[in-house]
């Protein structure tokens, strides 16, 4: 079908205000927010509801038009960027903004896929409940995109990834059929787990248009601390101690190396260290509870025990909300500091917690020997085994040299991750960034199973082509 005819038919389906046709308006849709991938499209379709998504997909299925689903376009792996052919339609869900239902008795919330994560959090708060998924991009990322990439964040230690927070989905299939799986059930043993199948599939199997999400009682108390440690094994041991002493109250356990903190202090305005001395590693840990009494005492007891045992060399406990926010700004400022300091080659990896220290030791030695001039920026959610093991290149590095170093660093880091039974993508997804590497680290059987599912649901390969597989 010719492009003008396709646009005319799309106009009938979603209206003139549901299409973006001019280059200026499309600029935010055809380029990822990191600026790594740039594509083009003849049309951005913006349906208002699942019925319109269904109609668009029926048309694209009939005309064999490839579709790139897009939420907030805040991904880290190029999973929502079209190619440069101009033949792919971008289907944006950013007009699907309805909170369909909040059920505080069942502790669930049903929302359109285009609702911002921050809006889901606010709707939960308004009902006296808590939605725990928390990301740096929560003011611009959508819940549909969070589910499509199985987003992680800072509260995975206690509450799990996005997959663990969804009970049911509404999905438009590649041929336009709508699967309504919006059931707020904790138990439903009636066949294959289709909800989990679509979560993390990065828009390659269907388009998530709605979700039933888990809510939790709102926390009434919070205790936050910042500690310095001599070694990473000491922090892993501290994690075990805190889990035993504090149970589910331990909500966050975030690590950064000394080089990370130095970057933040140098490049983020207003940042200051809570501790007087320098330490090889730092940890931000937090306790929350629905009953605030005794939480501060529990934190003081836990921190004191860690100091006495030598797991921490120093520790500061936030005495008020402002101090807690200042500690979190140090952790959240790493990405901003990296951008200002140079060009980072990023590795979003997952390992068994018991093997984190071994990986960091072996990877550090290997990179120091092969790339002695390149500093490592190592931080992450070590409570769930997720490291952001980045390598900083100079800001003026030439593009060919950046590409060469990226390939060499990826091979060295990811080979070691695979040897330790880890994953090369913990929470950022595969997208375009890790697509070609996937075959190296997944078995032929695993890749074949994924392709079988893809062909069964999307035989014409119209859904987000060139991503994941």
From TrEMBL:
Q: In which domain of life is the source organism classified?
A: Bacteria
**Stretches assigned to the FAD-binding PCMH-type domain:** 37-218
In terms of InterPro entries, this protein maps to:
FAD-bd_oxidored_4_C (IPR004113), FAD-bd_PCMH (IPR016166), FAD-bd_PCMH-like_sf (IPR036318), FAD-bd_PCMH_sub2 (IPR016169), FAD-linked_Oxase-like_C (IPR016164), FAD-oxidored/transferase_4 (IPR051264), Oxid_FAD_bind_N (IPR006094), Vanillyl_alc_oxidase_C-sub2 (IPR016171)
MF (Gene Ontology): catalytic activity; FAD binding
**Keyword annotations for this protein?**
FAD, Flavoprotein
Q: Which SUPFAM superfamilies match?
A: FAD-binding/transporter-associated domain-like, FAD-linked oxidases, C-terminal domain
Q: What cofactor does this chain's UniProt record say it requires?
A: FAD
GO BP annotations listed: respiratory electron transport chain
Family the entry assigns = Belongs to the FAD-binding oxidoreductase/transferase type 4 family.
Name listed for the protein in its UniProt record: Hydroxyacid dehydrogenase
């Amino acid at each position: 079908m010719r492009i003008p005819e396709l646009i005319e038919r799309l106009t009938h389906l979603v209206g003139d205000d549901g299409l973006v046709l001019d280059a200026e308006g499309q600029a935010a849709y055809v380029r990822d927010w990191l600026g790594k991938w740039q594509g083009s499209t003849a049309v951005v379709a913006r349906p208002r509801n699942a019925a319109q998504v269904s109609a668009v997909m029926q048309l694209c299925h009939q005309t064999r038009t490839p579709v790139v689903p897009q939420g907030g376009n805040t991904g880290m792996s190029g999973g929502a960027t079209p190619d440069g052919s101009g033949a792919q339609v971008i289907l944006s869900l950013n007009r699907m903004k309805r909170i369909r239902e909040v059920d505080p008795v069942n502790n669930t919330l049903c929302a359109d896929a285009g609702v911002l994560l921050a809006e889901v959090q606010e709707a939960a708060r308004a009902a006296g409940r808590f939605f725990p998924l928390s990301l740096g991009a929560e003011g611009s990322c959508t819940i549909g995109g969070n589910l499509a990439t199985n987003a992680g964040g800072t509260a995975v230690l206690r509450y799990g990834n996005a997959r663990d927070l969804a009970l049911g989905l509404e999905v438009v299939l590649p041929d336009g059929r709508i699967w309504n799986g919006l059931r707020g059930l904790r138990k439903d043993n009636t066949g294959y787990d289709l909800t989990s199948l679509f979560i993390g599939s990065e828009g390659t199997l269907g388009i998530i248009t709605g979700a039933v999400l888990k809510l939790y009682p709102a926390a009434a108390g919070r205790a936050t601390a910042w500690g310095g440690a001599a070694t990473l094994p000491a922090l892993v041991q501290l994690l075990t101690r805190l889990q035993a002493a504090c149970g589910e109250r331990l909500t966050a356990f975030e690590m950064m190396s000394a080089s990370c903190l130095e970057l933040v202090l140098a490049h983020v305005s207003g940042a200051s260290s809570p501790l007087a001395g320098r330490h090889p590693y730092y940890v931000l840990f937090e306790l929350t509870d629905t009953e605030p009494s005794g939480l501060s005492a529990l934190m003081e007891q836990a921190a004191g025990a860690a100091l006495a045992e030598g797991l921490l060399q120093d520790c500061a406990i936030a005495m008020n909300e402002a101090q807690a926010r200042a500690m979190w700004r140090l952790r959240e400022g790493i990405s901003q500091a990296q951008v200002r300091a140079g060009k980072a080659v990023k590795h979003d990896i997952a390992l068994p917690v018991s093997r984190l220290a071994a990986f960091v030791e072996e990877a550090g030695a290997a990179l120091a020997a092969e790339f002695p001039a390149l500093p490592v920026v190592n931080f992450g959610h070590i409570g769930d085994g997720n490291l952001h093991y980045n390598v900083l290149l100079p800001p003026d590095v030439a593009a060919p040299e950046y590409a060469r170093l990226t390939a060499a660093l990826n091979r060295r880091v990811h080979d070691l991750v695979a040897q330790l039974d880890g994953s090369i993508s913990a929470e950022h997804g595969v997208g375009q960034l890790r697509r070609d590497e996937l075959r190296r680290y997944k078995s032929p059987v695993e890749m074949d199973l994924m392709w079988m599912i893809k062909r069964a649901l999307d035989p014409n390969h119209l859904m987000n082509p060139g991503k994941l597989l």
